[in-house]
Amino acid sequence: MEKRHISFSPPDISELEIEEVCNTLRSGWITTGPRTKLLERRLAAYIETGRTDINCDDYENIEKYSNRVVCLGSATAAEELNLRILGVGPGDEVIVPAYTYTATVSAAIHCGATIKFLDIQKDGDPFTHSPEIDYDALESAITSKTKAVIPVDLAGIVCNYDRIFEIVEKKRELFSPMVSDGTHLGDISSRIQHAIGRVAVVSDAAHSLGASRVVSYSGEGKVPKRKRYVGAIADFTSFSFHAVKNFTTAEGGASTWLPLKGIDNSEIYKMFQLLSLHGQNKDALAKTKIGAWEYDIIGPWYKCNMTDIMAAIGLRQLDRYKGLLERREIMMRIYDETCNKLKINHLVHHTSYMDSSNHLYLIRVPGIDIEQRNEIIKKMAERGVSTNVHYKPLPLMTAYGKDCSGYPNAYDYYHNLISLPFHTLLSDEDVEYVCEILKEVVDEIRV
């Protein structure tokens, strides 16, 4: 078998994206501008309908889909701004799974909140095997200090939001909304907390743009049971458009939220603009209008806006996105068949109630330890196949104490886990090559 070189996760960039970026550069408008605003509207339409072909440049859809999604410089910025708009700060607790990437946690720490890690379910969710938080432990962990829980849709598999909302609703009597400190941000945060009236569900959907789940609860309360796309389930949601994601703007991310009683979407959108543009009450596009140079600084905030160059990539990615997801599903079936034959555990991305965004392909090899797992990774790399591990539990990291003893399920899940290369630049022959190398190496290790 001739050796191939299989990268782990290169971006799928076509001539369409390249042409749109070139057009943006030629336009003279390269920072936040018309393309960013169009991408926001198109993402809002996609989250609501699952369609990528809605014309969001006509007047009706400009009105309908504006002020519902804000594009930012990263998913980490989106997570942090979600929490800041919610008023999360010193003295508050935020609950997160021990099995996630650091951005889920660092955003809350930046806000001054205290992190409460929870272990995952033993071997993950019983149906999808995704490393979801232990929901029974979540119910016990909520206190009067808890302001938010951050579920993580790891690999694109959508968490059990019905169970999460049942828990936070059950604990509603423990929740005390913050009192405004009289500032612009403090006022809207207080009103949002009063409108929600319970612990906020702030979804880390870095992996799950385009994923969906049949739900009976959302941030709007008990709702008719139906399929909803991620972004239309949790109170606030953050997405990642990093280069390794299956929808990319090179870097970048987005926040979205559900309507809140008594608070107009445009008011929340405006707060995101203030937080992401130094607290300046006019962006560069608004200041180009005749006589509109003057502006105010409302607060000493941050700089994390998305540029039109980034949005240009995203617009053409969105045109192609449904096809990219379908291609991933085809490759996934090949991997599934191989793993089933080898008796290797893998995630289940599609069920009768949930469709993943097919972002990562995680496997767990039964009966091996960490050293053997690392040897498999090394041997596959020697034969041209790059792999990864998603993730090393955060409590094992220096920043979070380097002690995973309190999270045995997270450690057990991690110790034999490997992420296979899974991207849309792979041919069928590439996928078959990965399968052959996996079989060879696992057989060698198992001997």
Structure in a nutshell:
By secondary structure, the protein is α/β, with parallel strands linked by helices. The protein is built from 13 helices and 13 strands. It is 39% helix and 14% strand.
The helix/strand class is alpha/beta
Shape descriptor reads globular
CATH topology of the largest domain: Aspartate Aminotransferase, domain 2
Classified by CATH, the class of the largest domain is: Alpha Beta
Largest sheet: 7 strands, mixed
- CATH architecture label name of the largest domain: 3-Layer(aba) Sandwich
Instruction: Give the termini separation.
Output: 22 Å
Describe the structure.
- The chain has 2 domains: 17-313, Aspartate Aminotransferase, domain 2; 322-446, Aspartate Aminotransferase, domain 1 (Alpha-Beta Complex), CATH 3.90.1150.10.
- The mean pLDDT is 97.
- It has a 7-stranded mixed beta sheet, sandwiched between helices.
- The chain is α/β, with parallel strands linked by helices and 447 residues long.
- The two termini are 22 Å apart.
- The chain has 13 helices and 13 strands.
- The radius of gyration is 22 Å and the shape is globular.
- The protein has helices at 15-27, 34-49, 59-65, 75-85, 102-110, 135-141, 161-170, 184-196, 265-276, 308-342, 370-382, 408-415, 428-446, and strands at 69-72, 93-97, 114-118, 146-149, 200-204, 212-218, 221-229, 236-240, 253-257, 345-346, 354-355, 361-364, 417-420.
- α1 (15-27) runs antiparallel to α10 and α11 packs across α13.
